[in-house]
Amino acid sequence: MSYRQTIHSNTNIAHILEAMGTIPADTAQLEEQRRGLTFVHIVTLCDGNTTRPDDHFNILFSRPRTLNPTVDTPGEILHTFLLGGVKYVWHKTTSGWDKKKDQIFAIQLQTSSVDGLLLSPVRSNYIMQYKNSLVGRHFKILQQVGVFHLHGGMCSDLVVDLWKASRELSAMLWYHSIQNMADYLADLKVLINNLLNVWAVIDPNHILTKLKLHVLPHLVEDIQHFGPAVLYSTEIFECWNAIFRFCSILLNHQAPSRDIAITLAGMEHFKHLVSGGWWCGADGQYIHSGEKVRTFLQSNPTLQCQLGWVHPVNVTAGTVKPESE
Q1: Per-residue pLDDT at 200
Q2: Residue 208 confidence (pLDDT)
Q3: What average pLDDT score do residues 150-177 get?
C-alpha cells in the first residue's frame, strides 16, 4: 500500500490516534467518518511534519512513549553473557597456556563430578581441542566446574578472582522466579560491579572495547522491566539449529533453502497426520487419519521423542523419581 492510498476504517487508525492522545475522541470519530486517513495524515497528526511521499515511516517511532527500541529491547544472556563475558574470561585464561597446561586442564576437567547439575556430558578433550570455537553449552560447563581446576599455577590469582565473580553473576542471572525484586536487583548490581571491577584491574580497555561487558549493567533495568532473564533467553531456540543441519545433510546443496523448506514441510505434514489433525478432502469434507495411525504415535515413545511430543506430567515439588522410570 502506497502512502497516498487510503487506509480503510476497519484498521481503526483513528482509534489508535485517539489512544495516543493525538486527537480528541469526537474529532477521531469525525475524521473516520468524513474521510479515510492516509499515512501522510497520520504523520502530520502525530508530530506536525509531513514526510515525503517516498519516505518509509513507521508510526510507532513517531512517539517516544509508544516504542523506545533502546529500552524495549532486553539484554539476552546467551549471547550477552555466555558468549560475551564468560567467553572473554575463558580466552583470558587460556590464551597464555601451552599444550602441557591444556592437557592438564583437560584431565582435571574430565574428573569433575556433575551430580546434581543439569549439564551435558563433559567432553574435556573436545573443549580443549576447539577452545576457540566453543558454544553456549560448553561455557555453561566451564562456568560451573572450571574454576575448581585452576589451582597449581594454572593462572594468576587475579584471573581466579575473575572466574569467581563471573560464576557468582551467572548463578544470579539464571533465576527462574524472583521472590523479592528489590533485593534481587540490589544483589545483581553488586555482582555486576564486582565482575567489572576485576576486569578494570586486569584490563580496563576491555570494558571500553567489548560492548557485551558494557551491556551487563543494563540487565538490571531489563529484569525489572521484563522479569527474569531466562524468560526471554533465545537459548532454547538454538536447538532448532540441529534440526536445520540434519535436514541439509543429504542434500546436493544446489538449492539448500528450497530443499530444507520442503523437508521441514514434510515433517510438519507427517506430524499433522499421526497426531490426528484434520484436512479438507477432495469432496470438500474434512477427514483425518485412521485410528491405527493415530494410536501408533501414542504407543511409540521413540516416535514421540523424535517429534517433540510428550505426555503432560504433573510434577509435585519435593518428590523423587528414579531415572529408570
Answers
A1: 94
A2: 87
A3: 92
- The better pLDDT of the pair 50, 228 is held by 228
pTM: 0.64
Of the candidates 126, 123, 128, 122, the one whose C-alpha atom is nearest the C-alpha of residue 93 is: 128
- Concatenating the DSSP letter of every residue in 264-297 gives HHHHHHHHHHHTT-EEE-TTS-EEE--HHHHHHH
In this prediction, residue 156 carries a pLDDT of 92
Question: Using an 8 Å Cβ cutoff, are 146 and 94 in contact?
Answer: no
User: Could you give the C-alpha distances from 25 to 28, 186, 297, in angstroms and in order?
Assistant: 5, 44, 56
Predicted local confidence at residue 64, as pLDDT: 53
1 sits in which H/E element: none
Alpha-helical runs (H) found in the chain: 13-19, 25-34, 39-47, 69-72, 77, 87-94, 99-110, 124-129, 136-145, 157-173, 181-202, 204-209, 211-215, 219-226, 240-246, 256-274, 291-298, 301-307
DSSP code, position 133: S
Choice between 249 and 138, residue whose per-residue pLDDT is larger: 138
Range 159-163 contact pairs with CB under 8 angstroms and sequence separation of 24 or more: 159/89, 159/92, 159/93, 159/202, 161/198, 162/89, 162/92, 162/195, 162/198, 162/199, 162/202, 163/89, 163/93
Kindly state the DSSP code that residue 205 receives in the 8-state scheme. H
What type of residue is 11? T
pLDDT above 90 for 52: no
Q: Residues of 26-65 as b/e, b for ≥16 C-beta within 10 angstroms? A: eebeebbeeeebbbbbbbebbeeeebeeeeeeebeebeee
- Do 159 and 92 meet the contact criterion of CB atoms below 8 Å apart? yes
Q: What is the pLDDT of residue 324?
A: 57
Dist CA 106 CA 126 (whole Å)? 9
Distance CA 83, CA 216 (A): 13
Residue 111 carries which side chain, given as an amino acid letter? T
